[in-house]
Specification:
Largest sheet: 7 strands, mixed
Number of domains: 5
CATH class of the largest domain: Alpha Beta
CATH topology of the largest domain: Rossmann fold
Distance between the termini: 61 Å
Shape: elongated
Strand content: 25-35%
CATH superfamily of the largest domain: P-loop containing nucleotide triphosphate hydrolases
Number of strands: 34
Helix content: 25-40%
Radius of gyration: 32 Å
Length: 683
């Protein structure tokens, strides 16, 4: 029997690395399963997570608490894996921001919070590690108010810690007026906390009153807001984003974890409380169990033995095993095999799932992350989650000859599992590029490829696609004559080479008159020229943006052939390039850096040191966007260097730009830099 939508609670745990998200989630699983302590290794279950002691990907845990079915999405806190935190905030109905009591707001804290605001998801904040030295719950509350409080949006404590640092003993609930110490509930204010409790209750009830006009009128008239009205006000205020409650906790001591579960069960919004799902067609899709069926695939796990496991958020309708569905993106039919709830890597089969639930389905044939599944007669699609741009890239290939297909099949599976990764072919250099959010992100993906699929991947820095061109016009002859006994080889081509505007490519003009070169040999001359363009005279890079006018030549009635004229065309082109003042071209990229205002000067200075040209600075919210054009070869270490300059507080986006001539005094430097990268790749 499926649970009803109103009893489902979907929450995601977000926050910076080390804040204790996974410990809190494991504590919740432990309490829900009847234990007095947390589970271990249920969520961070991969070998890589065990070795590194950190969450590297989203995990899902379904648990029951006081008549509610809670789906917990635990997300990574490292900036290199923040894509899963962004995805989780699309599919959950409430985000639990976990902050470290010793260092509440870090770069990732701000990044995931901003994404939550963009997604329109309500928040609850948990201050964890309050048993540590030099922690002050009140000071953290003020910090949170200063950073996340807005006009009409109150950041207020919902409970208070009893004791501090090593003396932390329990939690006092401001709405219930009860203390929870060592598993015991007491209807009294802890000694010495009277003033603190009174001040916090005043803040809380003011926030509740201001979130509801009826309660505000009652509050201003001096009437008492009942406990029931207060709980209703909190629930409504959270759902509408007017109240951001803050809870105290120590996951290590299991203090406050049960209170968090109570708040999720009693005050977090159900899927039917929010209207956040909009189809790509622009239509709101209500979370109605009796409405049209639609499910959004937000995570894919690929196991070399068990195959694909797709995790879905049911947006509308209901489904059972063996349901026949359609994927609108591919047009293909899919049949749901057994449906189940996840608890880490374990699956618990269910007969039916309803709107708002999160389920796992095995072995969908033609469905990828961010696809929608629906009924054939009512097709709906949802937009993919907007993920951060990759900033680290490697050229990848097979170490062993003959394993190319196996290697790239394994890499493609890894990209299926993690949509923050991108695998693309760069035609300019002939390389396959695997790109990720940071270097560790890509390195971990390649490590998983080797461990899971038993193939060895060669990874190296990608080449910068330098080019060559000419700046003057020149005429030249290519004459190929070879006599070795019997039939000889003869071809003679005369050309005029001239530069074209940047980005024009190649243009060939046949200006032969009078038959000095027979018509059937003209394509061979052009082919020889095109082949010669593959390696210029400066450093062997391709020649671009030139026009070749074939205006004269000579042939022999017996010895001329297509091959002879191909060689003649190649010779003529090479001779003309030498006379036409060849130059080296380098690619520029368009860079946008999103940064706090106080770091603009440091970043502009660094971009200038990379031969960058600032193109403007504009305000975006509380932050600044710096736009610049920078030579691509100067950006090879930019992700690492920007993190160092800004402490990780800025991020950037790069787009391909245009080619420009390398200044003569820098030609040797640019060539040397590219050669170093290629040598490093070969070593």
């Amino acid at each position: 029997m499926a649970v009803e939508t109103e009893t489902i609670r979907n929450v995601c745990l977000i926050g910076h690395r080390g804040s204790g998200k996974t410990s809190i989630a494991e504590g919740m699983i432990g309490l829900a399963s009847g234990r007095s302590g947390p589970t271990s290794g249920v969520l961070d279950y991969t070998d890589e997570e065990s070795e590194r002691g950190m969450t590297l990907g989203m995990s899902v845990a379904n648990l029951g608490w006081k008549g509610r079915q809670v789906n917990v999405l635990d997300t990574p806190g490292d900036g290199g894996f923040v894509g899963d935190a962004f995805i989780a905030q699309r599919v959950a109905d409430c985000a639990i921001l976990v902050v470290h009591a010793q260092d509440a707001i870090q770069v990732v804290t701000e990044r995931v919070w901003r994404r939550g605001e963009k997604e329109g998801i309500p928040h609850i904040i948990v201050v964890n590690h309050l048993d540590r030295e030099r922690t002050d719950f009140g000071a953290v509350i003020e910090q949170l108010k200063g950073r996340f409080g807005r006009v009409g949006q109150a950041v207020v404590p919902l409970n208070l810690p009893i004791g501090s640092e090593d003396g932390l003993r329990g939690i006092y609930g401001l709405l219930t007026g009860t203390s929870f110490v060592d598993g015991e509930q007491r209807a009294e204010i802890p000694e010495g906390m009277e003033d603190e409790v009174e001040a916090a209750k005043t803040q809380l009830f003011e926030a509740i009153a201001e979130s509801d006009d009826t309660l505000l009128e009652k509050y201003l008239e001096g009437e008492e807001i009942t406990t029931e009205e207060a709980f209703d006000g909190i629930r409504k205020g959270i759902a509408e984003g007017l109240i951001i409650p803050v809870l105290a906790a120590s996951a290590e001591r299991m203090i406050g974890i049960d209170r968090l579960l109570d708040v999720i069960a009693g005050s977090a919004p159900s899927p039917s409380d929010l209207q956040r799902w909009i189809s790509e067609e622009g239509d709101p899709v209500p979370c109605d169990p009796d409405g049209p069926f639609a499910a959004y695939v937000f995570k894919t796990y690929v196991d070399p033995y068990a195959g694909r496991l797709s995790v879905l958020r049911i947006v509308g309708g209901r489904c059972r095993s063996d349901e026949a569905l359609t994927n609108p993106r591919t047009g293909s039919s899919e049949r749901l095999g057994g449906i189940s709830h996840l608890v880490g890597k374990d699956r618990e089969p269910v007969d039916e799932a309803v709107a708002g639930d999160i389920i796992a389905v095995a072995k969908l044939r033609d469905t990828a992350t961010f696809d929608t599944l629906c009924k054939p007669e009512r097709q709906i699609t949802f937009e993919p989650v907007d993920l951060p741009e990759p900033t680290a890239a490697f050229a990848v290939g097979a170490k062993a000859h003959g394993e190319e297909e196996k290697v790239f099949d394994a890499i493609r599976r890894m990209v299926d599992e993690d949509p923050s990764l991108k695998l693309e072919r760069t035609e300019a250099t002939g390389e396959d590029i695997l790109a990720g959010l940071v270097q560790m992100h890509v390195e971990l993906a390649l490590e998983r490829v080797e461990h899971r699929y038993g193939v060895e991947v060669e990874a190296r820095p990608p080449k910068v696609p330098l080019m060559e061109t000419v700046t003057n016009s020149a005429q030249a002859q290519g004459r190929y004559k070879k006599q070795t006994g019997g039939r000889g080889q003869f071809g003679d081509a005369r050309i005029e080479l001239s530069p074209l505007p940047r980005g024009s490519g190649f243009e060939f003009e046949n200006a032969i008159v009078g038959g000095s070169i027979p018509r059937q040999f003209i394509p061979a001359v052009e082919k020889g020229i095109v082949e010669a363009m593959a390696g210029g005279s400066i450093a062997g890079y391709p020649v671009v943006d030139v026009k070749v006018r074939l205006h004269d030549g000579a042939f022999h009635s017996v010895d001329s052939s297509e091959n002879a004229f191909k060689v003649a065309g190649s010779m003529a082109f090479k001779n003309a390039v030498e006379k036409a003042h060849p130059v080296l071209l380098e690619p520029y990229v368009k860079v946008e850096v999103l940064t706090p205002s106080e770091l603009v000067g440091d970043i502009m200075g660094d971009l200038s040191s990379r031969r960058g040209r600032p193109m403007g600075v504009e305000q975006r919210g509380e932050r600044q966007i710096i736009q610049a054009e920078v030579p691509q070869i100067e950006m090879l270490t930019y992700a690492r260097d920007l993190r160092s300059i800004t402490g990780g507080r800025a991020n950037f986006h790069v787009e391909q730009g245009h080619y420009e001539e390398v200044p003569p005094n820098l030609v040797e430097k640019v060539l040397a830099a590219n050669e170093r990268e290629e040598e490093r790749a070969a070593s």
